[in-house]
Amino acid sequence: MSENKKNLTELSELGEFLLINKLTAPNITRNASTLKSIGDDCAVINYASDQKTVITNDLLVEGIHFNLQYSPLKYVGYKAVVVNLSDVYAMNAKPEQILVSVAVSNRFSVEALEELYKGIYEACEEYKVDLIGGDTTSSKLGMFLSITAIGKAPIEKIVYRNTANNKDLICVTGDLGASYMGLQVLEREKKIAIETQTQPNWDEKDYLLQRQLRPEARKDIIELFAEKNIIPTSMIDISDGLSSEIMHICNLSKTGAVIYEERLPIHQQTKDAANEMNLIPTTAAMNGGEDYELLFTIPLSEHDKIKDLDQISVIGHIAQQKEGINIIAIDGTPVPITAQGWNALLNEE
Amino acid sequence: MSENKKNLTELSELGEFLLINKLTAPNITRNASTLKSIGDDCAVINYASDQKTVITNDLLVEGIHFNLQYSPLKYVGYKAVVVNLSDVYAMNAKPEQILVSVAVSNRFSVEALEELYKGIYEACEEYKVDLIGGDTTSSKLGMFLSITAIGKAPIEKIVYRNTANNKDLICVTGDLGASYMGLQVLEREKKIAIETQTQPNWDEKDYLLQRQLRPEARKDIIELFAEKNIIPTSMIDISDGLSSEIMHICNLSKTGAVIYEERLPIHQQTKDAANEMNLIPTTAAMNGGEDYELLFTIPLSEHDKIKDLDQISVIGHIAQQKEGINIIAIDGTPVPITAQGWNALLNEE
User: Fold this and answer.
1) Is the ipTM of this complex over 0.90?
2) Does B41 contact A252 at a Cβ distance shorter than 8 Å?
């Protein structure tokens, strides 16, 4: 898909400046806070004086974070932006700008990079953020993406990881484990397709694939918090799996936690695929990762504000540190939670 | 140097979270504007309400932007930060924060990454910036660094590339071409050392090596501008070579320019090394790149403020667009300047 073919344009034909011009031609500025976009030594941002600036950067590496055998480049671009915006939402902040830097080998054509940027621009449109800068260079092997997301929030609304309190309710948005099951299905179907020379079968797996290949960040939840006057006591986005994230909140807040297995929101497609592949749905939900849902805590007194919201599940409560971090299995047995989160550094070949 | 040896620690022995803890243990916060540093979904920055935010990101790729055969990892870390801060100074702004993301293959040890971060922390100390976030992940091959630098300036002090005016004086800081000659010397000495099994000879090349391996950004010039009440009409940092940068300023400002070859500031070591290697010093100065000096324009009326400053050379003046962009050779011949800047995308293997 990304190999140079006769009718495609090699990167070296254009050179860096023309390539940047071509890739950034569709770019538009949406936010008044973007004073200067692409085209200078730096971009310039102007947030109102009552706003603080939040900022995050992630690297996405071909073969580690994405696989071009499954994932169209347009989806890679979209997902790369979304996973960074998710970090901004996890601060209860509003993203308004991104920087995108790309290193690619000469295996990629100009047209391939245009596909990547199509996905980036789609995410910018969907989340109303501006692409304001970055870098384009070459790599010896494969594609590397670096995305920086910048956002704003008034100081009293910013939510950290280390501020959960004993007895707070633990909540998650959406459902868990679907992205991980999507990846398992993609791996399996790829193998079968190679062995049998047939087309993969994606019946009844569409939700899993969407969650893995083209996830969304929970912009809607941050808007809901504003509307309902909810400020979580702590919050984190679920990128490495629920186990890992609840441990971050508890360790940083010096608390324990109790999670109830029966309360974990798991989509029917996730359950079906897990059963089909002899995996335990709870394991996918706890340790799968890449859900990009929000895990947050609120005081018990705020329960009324969220109890009727479809998008939010109460899955447990914060406990004292000495009580540990446990999941209560469906049969009532408490099981200590250990970090089994997705570890990029162990995923080497 | 970066290979795993018996007494070194493999990355997989630690895992991502412990590695991040180890690498960030020496980190300190210097600036009051850093509200939240490493350890949450985002960092949080709080600039005073009269300040705008400037931001830039660069990727540095092993084998393209740095070569671990010449360059100790500590220098790679230092230089990676400096080249990004240079972009902030080029806006006439003050950098206060950086984000650092690293992707490495399992060829690197924990100790190798600690060396890299030593250089990063040295740059933070020297330039008084805070390391506030980033990402650590694996790559299939080699090392990739992504540095985001964030700084501040009041809006009336921010200097862009597209605002040079006809008849403005064109100035550069420091001297040009030394970094490029440093690279040539390193390449040559490496070859000789391999062929003859001898140690490289760096006599009288120390300045060139320092400029290539451990350059500095012109923090001092921005401070001088403030002290002398100078606001350039346009500015850019010289990363791709003077030719390329003057073309950026002229094309964006819709002007021409005249540069005088005899005015180009070239260090004696640069001249000597160029002569020794049958290269033309002016070519190194115009097209070499990686100088990280500032190229700026000021109105003729401001000449008195800079004429006695050692750090600044007036090398020409802005002209009308129709006059083109020319360098007047020492013999008086005008030669059109074309972009021969260092092009990362053409440097592929």
Assistant:
1) yes
2) no
